[in-house]
Design brief:
Elements lengths: L1 E7 L2 E8 L5 E5 L10 H9 L3 E5 L17 H14 L5 E6 L1 H12 L4 E7 L8 H12 L4 H11 L8 H10 L5 H14 L7 H6 L6 E6 L7 H10 L4 E5 L6 H4 L1 H12 L11 E4 L1
Parallel strand pairs: 3-4, 3-5, 5-6, 6-7, 7-8
Antiparallel strand pairs: 1-2, 2-4, 8-9
Helix pairs in contact: 1-11, 2-3, 4-7, 5-6
Length: about 280
């Protein structure tokens, strides 16, 4: 695996890259996270034959921060398309978690010809979340104190032992780095006031079988519960839903080998041919 800075859509970001070949896969994280969240997945997905890119969204990780970028789903989707352009990918498997799933679903709706498959993990954006959830989430986004960072990590991950002192310290420092407060203020305002204007579930459903769609959910996800995944699965005819036991909002990080197996089996058309421990499949 290598990492490097990359310019895309007029902003600077960081990319983690593994593998080679023309089967491109783009991994996009959620709010307050960064490309590193996929470190436990990159090599395994590359070993399965994919050329994998994980990217820091603007305002996150080591990407450009501050007020200059419009931290909205449509603008993040334009950024993701620009990343694909920069890495030379005409088409890719898109894998997004939480807000990243919403972003990549938007890419899929706007440029379906560029999508080999869409994988959404604990995703947002299929239906409005409503004013109460918007305000609650906006408040969490805007607080990067050490206490709140610890609370967020222990909510995202079901297994507390994965929240190490080093992980917490790194998260606090990155999310309090220059420009981070301004970026999170913009994201928080977007969640509070505009995110429900950009839902794409019906648009995605209208595409039918243009590309295969997989939903992955942690059974212990409390912030964005399984009922959201079930509703999305019902909305998206022909989609598959994989429910991972002993995992919350970050099942790809908590159980990386199982997550990678789910994704690669899905992409090869073999999902369900053999049981995966602690995984329930629907569709």
């Amino acid at each position: 695996m290598i990492q490097y800075p990359l310019g895309a859509a007029g902003t600077l970001t960081r990319v983690l890259e593994a593998g080679r070949g023309d089967k491109t896969m783009l991994l996009v994280h959620g709010v307050g996270a960064r490309a590193d969240r996929w470190r436990r997945n990159l090599e395994g997905l590359a070993d399965a034959g994919y050329h994998v890119f994980a990217v820091d969204l603007p305002g996150h990780g080591l990407a450009e921060k501050g007020y200059r970028f419009d931290h909205s789903v449509p603008n993040y989707a334009a950024f993701a398309r620009a990343v694909l352009d920069e890495v030379g990918a005409d088409q890719a498997v898109l894998v997004g978690t939480s807000l990243g799933g919403h972003i990549l679903a938007t890419v899929a709706c706007e440029t379906p010809e560029r999508v080999a498959a869409l994988v959404m993990v604990g995703t947002l954006g299929m239906a409005p979340i409503g004013p109460e959830a918007r305000e609650r989430t906006a408040g969490l986004i805007g607080d990067a104190s050490p206490e709140m960072v610890d609370r967020k990590l222990r909510t995202v991950l079901h297994d507390d032992s994965l929240v190490t002192a080093e992980m917490h310290r790194e998260e606090v420092r990155i999310n309090n780095s220059p420009g981070a407060a301004e970026a999170f203020e913009g994201i928080s305002d977007y969640f509070a006031n505009r995110i429900d204007d950009d839902v794409v579930g019906e648009r995605l459903a209208a595409l039918g079988d243009r590309f295969p769609v997989l939903l992955v959910w942690g059974r212990e996800d409390l912030g964005f519960p399984l009922s959201m995944g079930e509703a999305a699965h019902e909305m998206l005819a022909g989609s598959r839903l994989a429910i991972m036991d002993n995992a919350a909002h970050g099942p790809y990080f908590e159980r990386p080998a199982t997550f990678n197996a789910i994704v690669t089996q899905f992409l090869s058309g073999r999902l369900g041919d053999e049981p995966l421990e602690g995984v329930e499949l629907r569709g």
